[in-house]
Design a protein that fits this description.
- There is one protein chain.
- The chain is α/β, with parallel strands linked by helices.
- The chain is 46% helix and 14% strand.
- The protein has eight helices and four strands.
- It has helices at residues 7-17, 34-41, 57-63, 70-82, 102-114, 131-142, 147-153, 162-167; strands at 21-25, 46-51, 88-94, 119-124.
- Helix 5 (102-114) links the parallel strand 3 and strand 4 (119-124).
- The protein is elongated and about 50 Å long.
- The two termini are 35 Å apart.
C-alpha cells in the first residue's frame, strides 16, 4: 500500500457506488487516507477499527516485529476521531497469562477510551494451525513456563477454554 497507494482509489470507488465499507487495521498508513474517508462518509456508512492488542511496547515489538507501536495506534484512533469519524478498537488478541491481567486490560481500555474510541471488543488469542506452531515456538523461547498452561488452555483446539473466554 505504501508503494502503490491503492486505498484512496478503493475508498472513492466504494463511495461512488454507494457501497458501505469498513476498514480494520493495525497500520498507521490510514492517516494518509483520512480526507478520503471523511468524504466517503458523507455518502456511505464507513466503519473504522484499529487493532491494539496490548500496551507493553517491549512485548509488542517482540510479538509483532515491524508493526506500529501501541502509542502510534492510539494516535491513529485519536486522528480518526478528531476527523469526526467513529472508530472502534479490537483489543485482540489478549494473550492468556501475559496480557490478561485486570490491571493491564484496565490500562489499555483507559488509553483506548482516552483516544476517543467509540467502543472496544476484547477477544482472546486464537491458535489455528500454522499460527499455533509459530506461537508455541515463540512462547517456548520467550516464556517457557507458560507452555504447559497454554497446552491446557488450548487443549480442545484453536480456541481458548470456554471458562477462560467467559471470564475474559
Amino acid at each position: 500500500e505504501g508503494r502503490y497507494k491503492l486505498m484512496p482509489g478503493v475508498i472513492g470507488a466504494l463511495a461512488r457506488s454507494g457501497t458501505p465499507f469498513s476498514v480494520l487495521t493495525k497500520g498507521t498508513l490510514l492517516i494518509r487516507d483520512l480526507p478520503e474517508l471523511v468524504a466517503a462518509s458523507a455518502d456511505v456508512r464507513v466503519g473504522l477499527g484499529v487493532s491494539i492488542a496490548l500496551a507493553d511496547r517491549d512485548l509488542q515489538s517482540r510479538l509483532e516485529p515491524g508493526t506500529p507501536s501501541p502509542a502510534a495506534r492510539l494516535e491513529l484512533v485519536r486522528r480518526i476521531t478528531d476527523a469526526g469519524l467513529r472508530c472502534g478498537v479490537m483489543v485482540a488478541p489478549v494473550l492468556p497469562l501475559l496480557t490478561d491481567s485486570e490491571e493491564a486490560l484496565d490500562a489499555l481500555l483507559a488509553a483506548v477510551a482516552g483516544a476517543g474510541a467509540s467502543g472496544a471488543t476484547v477477544l482472546a488469542l486464537h491458535l489455528r494451525p500454522g499460527t499455533r506452531e509459530w506461537f508455541m515456538g515463540w512462547l517456548a523461547r520467550e516464556y517457557p513456563a507458560l507452555v504447559d498452561p497454554y497446552g491446557r488452555l488450548y487443549s480442545r483446539g484453536a480456541y481458548v477454554d470456554r471458562r477462560y473466554r467467559d471470564a475474559l
